[in-house]
Amino acid sequence: MKLLFSEPDPAGSERSRQAKVFRDLATEISRLQPQALTRTNNEESDHGPQYPANFTKGLLHDKCGLLGFPEDYRCFVEAINSPDRNLFEKHVQTARTREVIYNCKFTRICDADDATAQTPNWRGWESPRSGHVFELQGPDAGAVGMAPAPRVGSSELTAEMTEVYALAILRDVPFTVICDGGDQRLCVSRKNPGKAQLSAERIVHLLNKMPFYSGKNPISSTPHNTDETNLNRFERNRRFARTQSLNGKLTPATIFRGSTKGALIGPYISQFMLIGTQSLACKGDGKSSFPGTDASFDLQDGFIQYGSLIIDQRTLTHENCVDYMTDWCSWLDVQNGADFRGADQFEEKRRFITTPRDLVTYVHYDALYEAYLNAGLILLGLQVPASKGFPEPSPSGHRDAFVTFGGPHILSLVTEVATRCLKAVRRQKFNYHRRGRPEALAGRLTLASLGLDEKLGCAGAAFNGLLNEIPEVIRDAIIKHNHAQNELSGARNLDCSRDCSEDCLPEKEEGEPVDATEFEQRNLLLPMAFPEGSPMHPSYGAGHATVAGGCVTMLKAFFEMYEDCDSGVERPLCTPDGQPIVFVPNSDGSRLVKDTKFKKKLTIQGELDKLVANISIGRNMAGVHYYSDYYDSIRMGERIAVGILLEQSPTYGDAVETKFKSFDGDLITISGEAGSCPSLSVLDSNGNPVSPSDWWLRHVSGQEISEDF
């Protein structure tokens, strides 16, 4: 006798029909989400023909670092947005096709010791048309958006640029020292690394006096649209995020941190970037040696179980106390697309992330979603349960989780969302905002400092305002830092054989270069952690940050974020036997030690939010992004993840529900049941209900009204 239900129901053509129903339902769920309206800050239309605030890297620049042929930029934009996909091949003029002559040669560190310096190649723009790609899972790239970026001349951008300068000054100061307000550098390859040009405490004092932080007469990007604070709503949100207070002040313990409460609590570096898991061979003694050849190890050893292999949380780090692009020759080459990748130098030994430079190295080479894959492995190793609203494991224990609601499920989700985030942020970067990188703005500030602001056209006054609002003490510190770095020219694997005092420096109106001594005394170039500078795509939004927002939202939705007996209490980050997890690297980064200063318990949700901030702001520490790039990008990534979860929730055949906090502190609840439209509930930080539509559009300019197709 054939067994009852010996085959699945439905099957065959009925299963095929229902599969179409579910596909159509996912389409309808996506269609019903609001279409975010993207607006730019209008600098591109206001500041032509030089476009000094926009991304021009890779086009040919004159000796002042400004466009040699403004029509090249217009062709570049046309090639990005035109339906003619061949314009990049037949229409766009690059610095290479304009026959650029680079000033510097470089040596690759992996070449033989006797390798000769070579002329750099030109770098291609990275996927400039990927924003045209349609996405069939989760929100389409055109359905999400970002706020207009801060404009040059606004107090917010001035504060952001000052923060990036300050981060460069503190790049080799350990995070624990920064949090104490100190300035002592850690440079293991130097006998006496000395101190940074400014201490963290001094920098905090200077930042707090700036108009954006003090609230004393700040200049808005939209002065026609502000409230009594003289800031627009986007500026107010980003101002609030840094201290979680309307009138809060930065402190050494909170400076350069993220935009959530969790990111401001405890040690600077998230535990998910430090600790490991217990070995398959059971608990070690906490003294397993690098590189993890011992069979047994424990979480404080920093080895993550990856099947029978391990992932070591100790990172390779760029050579300490060495920065790039602090001279006009190499800076100008990089703006002209010179590919200096491979000139990087490294310390001999790995260490736990101890200084901003360590974090910078991590985000230079990471596989983009690797930190969140690692966090997922750690959470699984800590036996953190999946959301209470999932059907597996079942209450009876008869059903266990694996393919659904188990390890393979979440580990694939954090990679799955990453590619959707990248397409969406590329659309924002290339197709709309085309925001210039901090390295380029530092070049413009150097021109203004040299009295060449007329070269910037109608944007000259805005750049002068930006220059004058940056505290003079920080400007002087950057000038001194750059001078010290330029004394190391031979140590950077770059050979700029041209005489910078004659051939490379900016030219005055009469065609004469500025005096070399004068340039040295006014050099406000941004010290960069990478010899090639920023990537070959615009600044806003940030790819790392968007992926971080999407991936961590998946982790928060999958794992249970709240205590079993009280859903209002966040689950602490503890070992399976209940011991709090709070570690920091020791003084040289060789081992993890318990943090004796922090007496409370960290939460899983807070440390995941901190992980997002670490990765995203780590890019600011490298000099390639601003705070607003991080802030707005993670929130767009969050919405992409929520969109995917909403589409997936009706497909499981069981009722599912998950709860977590958004990056704005909202309580997000996503519920679904087989074959039915899901529900999205949003309660703000005060417990007030928020319309899902309003939440979706909170950080954009408005809604694009679409026809009912």
Describe the 3D structure:
It is a single chain. The protein has 709 residues and is of the alpha+beta class. The chain has 22 helices and 14 strands. Among the domains are: 43-151 and 435-521, no CATH class; 155-256, no CATH class; 276-312, no CATH class. It has helices at 12-32, 43-46, 70-81, 87-90, 155-169, 175-179, 200-208, 211-214, 233-243, 328-335, 356-365, 370-381, 407-433, 438-449, 460-469, 472-486, 500-504, 516-521, 543-558, 604-622, 627-648, 692-696; strands at residues 36-37, 105-106, 121-122, 303-306, 309-312, 338-339, 494-495, 583-585, 592-594, 656-661, 667-672, 679-683, 689-690, 702-703. Strands 10-11-12-13 form a four-stranded antiparallel sheet. Strands 1-14 form a two-stranded antiparallel ribbon. It has a two-stranded antiparallel sheet with strand order 2-7. A hairpin with a 5-residue loop joins strand 10 (656-661) and strand 11. The longest helix has 27 residues, at 407-433. The protein starts with 11 loop residues before the first helix and ends in a 6-residue tail after the last strand.
Provide the fold topology:
Layout: H1 12-32, E1 36-37, H2 43-46, H3 70-81, H4 87-90, E2 105-106, E3 121-122, H5 155-169, H6 175-179, H7 200-208, H8 211-214, H9 233-243, E4 303-306, E5 309-312, H10 328-335, E6 338-339, H11 356-365, H12 370-381, H13 407-433, H14 438-449, H15 460-469, H16 472-486, E7 494-495, H17 500-504, H18 516-521, H19 543-558, E8 583-585, E9 592-594, H20 604-622, H21 627-648, E10 656-661, E11 667-672, E12 679-683, E13 689-690, H22 692-696, E14 702-703
Antiparallel strand pairs: 1-14, 2-7, 3-6, 4-5, 8-9, 10-11, 11-12, 12-13
Helix pairs in contact: 1-21, 5-16, 11-20, 12-13, 13-19, 13-21, 14-15, 19-20, 19-21
